[in-house]
């Protein structure tokens, strides 16, 4: 044999291996960029020196009950537990992919007894004790195993981001539900106060009817208004029970054992800094997850192309075999072998090509999902910035309406006592005043909830100038 033949063979194969490695690389580049503005269009609202929001962004509302509910949800919410389990699974898959790059050692031991005419003729009749060790390792010639590890690591990072997104969603849902419940408490107190006033009116009107001072129509009108207000109070109580049960679910506790007593609505409403930069979207965990999904899809697209290339596996086997257990470790009973195996598929009916097309399609879908996630985030922030801005203006108008309604009621009652106005005028004035007050409370609730949605849309808060 020519002693230079192995060297010549290596020189001939090397260019082919380099070419195959180049073909194995994943499609490069990132998804088409989405133009992100330097500032949001509706960010021109009131500026304020607010601490940069973080993991405990809800503390800007300065409500200890909300703080307690958020802590309960952080430890007991089942959605967060499911997201944490998915993250643990993704990390286990990373370790599994890393293990594929390491050598594998198998150990076997056994004892057997053989007999029969054929075995006896061969001279192998009797006991046979064996102890063997197999060592195998696949050489990562084209980076296939490393790409699998990298893709699994990106999946784990994506699951980490999705866990943060799930945590942010739960936190926002707790805050929104809590503020809606507190608004209902305030509205129910307002309605119950109006009902108490109408009960007094019904009692006084009944006394005047018995003395012949008023007609029965005035009593019936007052009783009808009282019944309508009491019906509204019961509807508010029913809605409050539903919100209380929703908070129990978010906190991960049974609704039957969860109770949130009514109290004054004292949470602070933070102002929004002007000119929030669009770069804060980089904090959104769902965008980070989508970006990592694209990178993982790129790696898997390249990984699918390595299916065309051969694999090189190195194996080693060593052990002993003896008819006598006492002689199993003797040097004369030992044996070993080394082997290098190169394998590849010549024909698979188009399976590998289909795998490449599937990986490329997954990459296109991930890229489109990434672009859509950015556009959705920009829309959500613009929506909530506009809502916060317009709700503030609407609340100022509602406050004016409340003041004027109270003035109208006072004038109507004064004219009624002087005999210059009818009870119907008083009824209309009181109804208008109550409606204006309830509208103002609902607008206040909407402002709190829009602020929470804006914080979530910004990935957990906003950045203030000078506090990057």
Description of the molecule:
By secondary structure, this protein is of the alpha+beta class. The chain folds into 2 domains: 32-98 and 145-309 and 353-457, Outer membrane efflux proteins (OEP); 102-139 and 310-343, Outer membrane efflux proteins (OEP) (Single Sheet), CATH 2.20.200.10. The protein has helices spanning 5-23, 64-76, 78-99, 117-122, 144-210, 216-251, 285-305, 351-417, 423-457; strands at 104-114, 126-139, 311-322, 334-343. A 4-stranded antiparallel β-sheet has the order 1-2-3-4, with no helix packed on it. Helix 5 (144-210) runs antiparallel to helix 7. It starts with a helix and ends in an 11-residue tail after the last helix. Residues 1-26, 45-53 and 464-468 have low confidence and may be disordered.
Fill in the keyword field for this structure:
alpha+beta, Outer membrane efflux proteins (OEP), 61% helix, disordered N terminus, disordered C terminus
Strand percent estimate? 5-15%
Number of domains: 2
CATH superfamily membership of the largest domain: Outer membrane efflux proteins (OEP)
Low-confidence stretches: 1-26, 45-53, 464-468
Order of helices and strands: HHHEHEHHHEEHH
The average pLDDT is: 81
The CATH architecture classification of the largest domain is Up-down Bundle
User: What is the CATH third-level topology name of the largest domain?
Assistant: Outer membrane efflux proteins (OEP)
Give the helix proportion (percent range): 55-70%
Between the first and last Cα atoms, what is the distance in angstroms? 71 Å
Assembly annotation: single chain
CATH structural class of the largest domain: Mainly Alpha
The major β-sheet equals: 4 strands, antiparallel
CA-based shape: elongated
Decide which structural class fits the backbone. Answer: alpha+beta
The total strand number stands at 4
Number of helices: 9
